[in-house]
Write a structure and sequence with these properties.
This protein is 53% helix and 25% strand. It is built from 6 helices and 6 strands, in the order βααββααβαββα. The strands form 2 sheets. A 3-stranded antiparallel beta sheet has the order 1-3-2.
């Protein structure tokens, strides 16, 4: 998979598809529309998240995800917030992002939040959700990616 859909970008960034479409209209997010479906290359994604306005919004969203986890003291089951900081090359980034897009789109990870941010070779992945779900995702990641 070399391209990302708008739904995958929404999942990775935390932006709604409507917000992403607004970024497209403003020319900040560039991609190709094929058969009515937006497709974005890794390079398109890189340029988008490197935009200073987008980068600050992404940082705020990531911080809010962790803050919301920390301040929610009314959980009815065990939850985990895990933050992975990876130093990886382009090819490995594609593999990692494809893994998380596939897992998060599988329909088997209800009540889970996911975000990914990349700055050069540094990638930060944040997962929050029920303990059993996050543990399962991390086990699968360690099995497939190592």
């Amino acid at each position: 998979m070399n391209d990302y859909t708008i739904n995958q970008l929404a999942m990775m960034t935390g932006f709604t598809t409507r917000t992403l479409r607004n970024y497209i209209k403003m020319g900040i997010l560039v991609g190709d529309k094929e058969d009515g479906i937006w497709k974005f290359s890794t390079e398109d994604l890189e340029k988008f998240i490197s935009d200073p306005n987008v980068a600050s919004s992404l940082k705020s969203k990531k911080n809010a995800q962790v803050f919301d986890f920390l301040t929610n003291d009314t959980k009815k089951e065990n939850h985990i917030c895990t933050i992975m900081d990876l130093y990886i090359e382009d090819e490995e980034f594609k593999e990692v992002s494809e893994f998380f897009c596939r897992v998060m789109n599988s329909g088997k990870v209800q009540c889970t939040q996911y975000s990914m941010q990349r700055k050069g070779n540094n990638v930060r992945i944040i997962l929050t959700g029920p303990e059993d779900v996050i543990t399962s995702i991390m086990d699968q990641y360690n099995e497939e990616m190592k």
